[in-house]
Amino acid sequence: MKKQSKIMSIILMMFALFLIVPVVADAHVTVQPDVSTTNAYEKYTVRVPVEKEINTTEIKLEVPKDVDLVSVLPMTGWDYQLEKNENDKITAVVWKANNGGIKSGEFVEFSFIGANPSKPGEVSWKALQTYQDGSVVEWVGPAGSDEPASITKIQEGDSVKPHAESSHSDHKDSNKTEADNASTNWLPIVLSVIAILLALISLLRKRK
């Protein structure tokens, strides 16, 4: 009976770790929305979480060649610089902290307006995340990799109205999707806590 109890405890512990790992691995630098429309003037948001135990002090976002960066929303505690090519096109925006940066366990969102391409397809947002110790995490890989670049799918849409002023239903759907995703991300945490509690109860019974 004691042996079975020990085996059950180990299984529950492993199950808890299995559920926790995907939640941690999902803390990537992302650009939202992940779906937009052609010719839209879209408000994009760069979400930067901190995966390490040290602060993030700089984030560089490369602007896809088919997207034109129109304007950047100023952020308290952060300065930004625009990088341009020989044709004066903005190729990247770099945010640098002037107050210590983003702490461990926190995240910050940076926003800007981008003019979408005229043809449907996908645009890839490559980002470089610099930490206080000088280490850099390069979010430039393909989907499914350890450090993927964020992708926005560009669908055929209204070429007259800017996306920020078009149908509010699109934004409601987008907000609903984000809310659903947030709820889904909490589920593994709850299940993990339950599994750990069951494992502890089993260990306590064994000691008795």
Automatic annotation (TrEMBL):
InterPro entries from the UniProt entry: YcnI-copper_dom (IPR012533), YcnI-like_sf (IPR038507)
Tree of life domain: Bacteria
Residues covered by the YncI copper-binding domain: 28-146
Gene3D superfamilies, sorted: Uncharacterised protein YcnI-like PF07987, DUF1775
A Pfam short name: DUF1775
Signal peptide: 1-27
Coiled-coil positions: none
Transmembrane stretches, start-end: 186-204
Ranges where the record places region Disordered: 155-179
Keyword terms, alphabetized: Membrane, Signal, Transmembrane, Transmembrane helix
Protein name: YncI copper-binding domain-containing protein
Native source organism of the sequence: Heyndrickxia oleronia
